[in-house]
Amino acid sequence: MRVLALNPGSSSLKTALVQDGKPVGWAAWSLPEAGDDTTVVGEALDRWSTVDAVAIRFVHGGSRAGPERLDGLAIGALQRLIPLAPLHQPRAVGLARAVFRLRPSIPVVAAFDTSFHATLPPAATHYPLPREWTRQGRLRRYGFHGLSCRHAARRVGELLDVAEPRLLCCHLGAGVSVTAIRDGWSMDTSMGFTPLEGPAMATRSGSVDPGLLLHVMRTAPMGAEEMEDALYRRSGLAGMSGTDGDLRSVLASATTGDPDALAAMEVYLHRVRREIGAMAVALDRLDAVVFTGGVAAHQPELLARLTEPLGVLGIEADSERCLGDGDRVVSPEGASVTALVLGTGEEKELARAAEEVLAARTRPKAPTG
Ligand SMILES: Nc1ncnc2c1ncn2[C@@H]1O[C@H](COP(=O)(O)OP(=O)(O)O)[C@@H](O)[C@H]1O
Ligand SMILES: CC(=O)OP(=O)(O)O
Ligand SMILES: [Mg+2]
């Protein structure tokens, strides 16, 4: 099956043609350079003319436990989740609508970041808020980067000779999260109700004391839109350093001795380390730590600096090994935890989801009686 995978991230739009599980074509844009949804989809469908299905990454799927085939009704339901993932969900909805417009006969499958975390233990999903707020089960922690985590768990299973591996998946892209995974199951994760919780990100604040936000609301009153803009688009590395938040820009400013950029890097690394520590306690032992996402792929030299103070958890990365290519072990010989850099497998997981959903639809029904 030839699946066109569409992966709208917060700083990029990645597309791939995946044939029988193997990516055979790839195109990516930095945002905001990518054209409008119809142009992107039109170009992809022209480039890879024979496509059996389109798979789209939706970061928020609410309580959906697995991928699903989209129709107009389903898109409408996903559109209602836009306020819970304002950097991602509008583009995913727009891409789906563009495929329907341009090629109404191609099946479109949505795969959700949140589905991987649908089985999180209750203690990891529940917010300590008034019962009246949480009773319906909607105001809870959902978790994100699930397609990336699923791929990381799959690769660790293939690469390490360990039964029921316990691993941490550190996704370092424009969004940043850390997830504890036990034998393929999510045990805890740093992102929550929205992809705003957790470490500092490219333009997102990550976790801040809610009391600080209350204070700001009182002293500099602003509406929800303005607060959303500040927390999602004007905070994180961008807000701290005065750059666009791309790690390349922050590192370039830090190299010139810019004090804000230097401080931003320290805060960024400190907050990722803190989440690594927090997630480790969701596992009864630690076999592996995976670094993935654009930063792990393109700034692997940062990983030795990131892991330097993590010896207390047995996590180490060797600076020479970090500089290698492809999926690789970066921990030194004899380290108690295997540290790996893995390519981000979201597009492969998208294609797999489309194959699963469409195979289930065409499979003949088992005879009854
Ligand atoms: N070609 C590249 N060269 C160097 N760094 C890159 C490159 N592409 C991405 N990055 C780094 O990866 C980060 C974005 O990660 P990525 O996972 O692609 O983002 P998204 O969250 O949009 O999916 C950027 O901040 C940048 O530091
Ligand atoms: C969920 C999320 O933050 O995704 P990305 O890193 O692709 O922006
Ligand atoms: Mg991404």
TrEMBL record:
Catalyzes the formation of acetyl phosphate from acetate and ATP. Can also catalyze the reverse reaction. It is found in: Cytoplasm. ATP binds at residues 14, 171-175, 246-248. It comes from Amycolatopsis oliviviridis. Its EC number is 2.7.2.1. This is Acetate kinase. The keyword Disulfide bond does not apply. Mg(2+) binds at residues 7, 346.
